[in-house]
Design goal:
Elements (H helix, E strand, L loop, with lengths): L8 E5 L4 H12 L3 E6 L2 H15 L3 E5 L5 H15 L4 E4 L14 H29 L2 E6 L12 H21 L4 E8 L5 H14 L3 H9 L10 H12 L10 E4 L8
Parallel strand pairs: 1-2, 1-4, 2-3, 4-5, 5-6, 6-7
Helix pairs in contact: 1-2, 1-8, 3-4, 4-5, 6-7
Keywords: Oxidoreductase
Organism: Schinkia azotoformans LMG 9581
GO molecular function: oxidoreductase activity
């Protein structure tokens, strides 16, 4: 299947590692021009070199603090200057701290809001003029399986990831006339550094090893294992592509069947 991504410009936020990097890798394999963005220049340089070496693709990077509106503006401008108007925006951000309601004061809620919801709003706002001018585009928001079923001990994520899903649903309605498709994709238990961090917290609380906690979690997944970032990225790339011409406003999970909600 021709995904129609050759020569397209993709801006992937929080893409120096994890799911963002995996998505950037797959987009590059399909011929898209890639602008990586995250806070760490060293990590970005390493990721860009790895993607170029594997795909022989056109990959640039720029340092971006996604909680800073000026930094987001500069990141979008850097993508435009490097490749031309942005065709694809992948909104992504690291997860907020784990914990329950009693663990957080206002400052933690504000930081999680700016990181995990307002950054998506700001990046979307910056790319829309380019997408409208060229007659369409794709926006993909990376969230969590908590958009379908809250995860115990992740109240900040549960709150703001669901805000992302609501934002995307509304945007899909508003932007359909502009041929801009907007979707939300939620990972289940995908093998990233973030999941390792959460598993280590769970293992410590349960008095188990990391391997034991992972085995106990895998039992609840119908496919019997954690997913790989590349598997998640395959779905993300389809939703960002020209092959996806009629899926918008959807909140989808890549979770091996973990979440039982309809």
């Amino acid at each position: 299947m021709d995904l129609g991504l050759n020569g397209k410009t993709a801006l992937v936020m929080a893409s120096s590692r994890g799911l963002g990097k995996a998505i950037a890798m797959k987009l590059s394999e399909e011929g898209a021009n890639i602008m990586l963005a995250s806070r760490s220049e060293d990590a970005l340089k390493t990721a860009a070199e790895e993607i170029r070496n594997k795909t022989n693709g056109n990959v640039h990077y720029t340092v971006c603090d996604i909680t800073n509106p000026t930094s987001i503006k500069e990141t979008v401008q850097a993508a435009v200057e490097a490749f031309g108007p942005v065709d694809i925006l992948v909104n992504n951000a690291g997860g907020p701290p784990a914990g329950g309601f009693d663990n957080f004061e206002d400052d933690a809620w504000q930081k999680a809001f700016e990181l995990n919801l307002l950054s998506f709003v700001r990046a979307t706002r910056e790319v829309l003029p380019h997408m409208r001018k060229q007659g369409g585009g794709r926006i993909l928001n990376i969230a969590s399986s908590s958009i379908k079923e809250p995860i115990d001990g992740l109240i900040l994520s549960n709150t703001f990831r669901n805000g992302i899903a609501g934002l995307a649903k509304s945007l899909a309605t508003e932007l359909g006339k502009d041929k801009i498709l907007v979707n939300t994709l939620g990972p289940g238990r995908i093998g990233t550094d973030r999941l390792t961090e959460l598993d280590q917290i769970g293992a410590s609380k349960a008095g188990m090893t990391l391997e034991e906690i992972r085995a106990s979690k895998a039992v609840s997944i119908p496919l019997g294992r954690y997913g790989q970032p590349e598997e998640f990225a395959n779905i993300a790339v389809f939703l960002c592509s020209g092959a996806n011409s009629y899926v918008t406003g959807q909140a989808l999970l890549v979770d091996g069947g973990l979440i039982r909600a309809l």
